[in-house]
Amino acid sequence: MIINTRPTDLSQHTNSLLEKSKQNFIHIPLTKIVKTDPPLEALQHINSLQDYDALIFTSQSSVTHGYKFLQETSINDNNIPIIAIGLATQKALQKFNLASSIPPTFDSIGIANVIKEMDYKKCLVFCGEKDPHILTLTDADIDTFPCYASHDEMSIDFSKIRDRDKLAILIFTYQSLKVLMKQLPPDQNQNVILVVASSRIEEFAIGHGFKNIVLSESPHDKEMVNAALAEA
After folding, report:
1. Whether residue 122 sits in one domain with residue 182
2. Residues near 23 by beta carbon (within 8 Å), at least 6 away in sequence
3. What is the pLDDT along the chain (232 residues), one digit of tens a residue?
4. Do 159 and 142 share a structural domain?
5. Backbone angles phi, psi at 38, to 5 degrees
6. Domain end among 151, 170, 198
7. Are residues 137 and 157 in the same domain?
């Protein structure tokens, strides 16, 4: 059985791919996305878009909850380059008629490389309430615009899982893995297959005793599902 752990509002595409595969699966969200009010300092950044060499969106949720603050600006007129961390984030921007580029590795390291290659000096990052990883990877001047939070799901029902002998669990974030670890009995770690979205998550899982880990070719839904199907 495959378990999709994505938040409900980000799970539709993953669930659709799993349904088409005819593979037995279940959706058990381990986290949820909550809209937050950006601090005053972040709102002031919106009034100074002309000062930035690029805008960066770190997730679909950063687009969903961040774009409304750009609606009254001249973002399209200023032709400010926009970087999306991956394909899903890029598609979310396209819904608002915003063109963007994506780094070849679909992660913060890729974004840092783009910043270096393009010699961007100052960027505005739309993100969640936690400091984005990009802050540690570049010498550029980075301002943040936190506009959502990712919270642990409090009501998680693993009793719905029928076949516990072979579980392939999709893990897209550190946070979801940490929530999973709270839910699984310690001896269950050895019996599950984790399909993880990044090498950083893989390293974290190994460090916490997981043995059966599959690193997806990319963090995108299609590759994550394909990796899980190969193990299920």
Report:
1. no
2. 2, 228, 229, 232
3. 899 999 999 999 999 999 999 999 999 999 999 999 999 999 999 989 989 999 999 999 999 999 999 987 767 566 899 999 999 999 999 999 999 999 999 999 999 999 999 999 999 999 999 999 999 999 999 999 999 999 999 888 877 776 666 889 999 999 999 999 988 876 676 779 999 999 999 999 999 989 999 999 999 999 999 999 998 7
4. no
5. -60, 145
6. 151
7. no
First to last CA, the chain: 6
Tokens for 122? Answer: 């100052």
Picking from 72, 8, 11, 58, the residue whose alpha carbon sits closest to that of residue 224 is 11
Amino acid identity, position 170: L
- Range(s) of the domain holding residue 136: 34-151
Which H/E stretch holds residue 168?
A: strand 167-171
What's the CATH code of the domain at 197? 3.40.50.10090
Domain count, the chain: 2
* Residue 229 token pair: 């199907």
How is residue 81 annotated by DSSP? -
Q: Which amino acid is at 78?
A: N
7-35 burial code (b ≥16 CB/10 A, e <16) = beebbebbbebbeeeeeebbbbbbbebee
Mark which of 151, 169, 184 sits at the end of a domain: 151
